Amino acid sequence: MTVSTEGTVAVLPPGGPAAPARPIPAVRRGLGSRGTLLLLEAVVAFGAALVLPLLAVRFRLDPLDRIAQVSGLAAIQLRFALVGLLFIGAVALAVRLRGGRHFDLAARVAAAALAGLASGFVAAGAVVALHGTPWPMFGLNGDSGRIVEWAHAVANGRPSGSPVYPPAPLYTLGYYAEWFRGGNTAYAFKDLQILGAAAFGPLVYLCWRMLLGPVRALAFGVAPAFALIDAYKPYSQTVLVVLVPVLVAMVVSLSRTGTQGWRPLLLKGAGFGALLGVLFLTYSGWFLWSAAGVLFAALLYFPWRTGRLGRLKGAAFLGASLAAFLVVAGRYLAVMLTEGQTTKDYNFRFDNFTDPAYYLMWRTDMPGKVGEWPPPGEYGGVGLFALVTFVCLGAAIWLGIRRPMVVTVAAMFVSAWVMRMYIASHMYETQTVQLYTRTNNQLLYCGLLLCALVVHLVSQRMAARRAESASTTDGAGFPGREGAVIGTLCALLLLLGTVSSSMADRYMPAKENTYRILPWVSHTITEQDGSCPKYAPGGTCSKDGDQSWLSFIR
Q1: What CA–CA distance (Å, rounded) separates 391 from 54?
Q2: Which element (helix H / strand E) includes 3?
Q3: Can you say how many angstroms the Cα of residue 193 is from the centroid of all Cα atoms in its chain?
Q4: What pTM was computed for the model?
Q5: For residue 41, which of 195, 196, 206 has the smallest C-alpha distance?
Q6: d(CA 122, CA 503)
């Protein structure tokens, strides 16, 4: 039996050809509209994202002990695998029950659950890393300290210390602290670091669901995003991995405006504009790197050939988007266009002294022990991963040259690359950095997406050929769709579990010049009641925490 994506069932008698498909609204009849199903996916994804952090709260271990850290990661991995296997088992069971009529629903729920569980894994790692201390990662030092201070200011009606810093995180932290932490923005930031990491998977999954089916959204949108998940300042990377599918979906919608009615066209345009405004208020840097590429894609897929009325509809869609964006973020945009031009970044980091063409791995601002960097590659100093990425860039454009999704992602990759080189080329003249190394993340994510899209396009062609062969033969050839879905979910369970464990381990406390120093310092800062955190080394702590790690910086 084969279940199609349109909600029909084709029954394959043993040894015989496929019977004519008969429409069975399997999912719709049980749960209603598509909006209801998406709401179900959202509830499942966000609920699953909270499971592992809540379970990790009950762990009893010393987070500064390496054996305890390994045991904690293994305990999270065990729970991740067991819960994930329950959902995959439900998908396998759905194939056998009631003629497979609930297979699509089970696959949909399982994909949403895995997206939530994966980011919940990283959030649970943060729970373990900060167990026994009320402070956020790095306490009141560095970026963490500034964010806490500025959020406290805006929550009390005062301006923040930086007018160009994105206001949404500051207001969110400030009001969250007022509602749940008695105004203590420092302790509240710990909560939001954990919750922000947990929300990463569900948010990127739901955004890719605007473009792809459930399992494909998980495989080709969510999985590449996990190279960037961050528990220290989760909002910046979350904006990137959400912005890409939102901009792609906007270009896709623009290409279809010529044949749409006025009301849905204007509502959809306003919705995209408002969503982009919220993202811009949360972290604006990615908009700068992406602007040229998205403009190119929008011009390419504008409904030029649909007549005067079609072009008018396209302009109306863009106008509604712009108007909604300005309503939400216009004031902050004006600040960025004025004061942002005079804000200079003079902070030269580790990556500013390396080959600007290397973007495949970001060692963060605290690189730890580094030998030869970038790592030497086999082909003119370039490694296999880079070669695969560039080959996939060409293959994706070849296979999807007429698809707005592929072209927009490729254009965003090229746009970020050009902006990176433009800013870096002026670095010596201006002696400023202007955050150009942050393009690493966009280049890596878009490159991974292009690799995933090659697999997506090839698998679509394989599925189409299988459908053609099934109508003329006894169904021999490629295995059924059910096996492909279950196999993909099993592979993604292991992949996401492994990646999430690695990203969670990055924040396990240790006194070294890496991101592990962030939670280490949190365990060495005097609490507001004058006591030391439970696991402070030697039972000693101080106002600023242990800063002796600075001697490790060369």
Answers
A1: 42
A2: strand 2-3
A3: 15
A4: 0.91
A5: 206
A6: 7
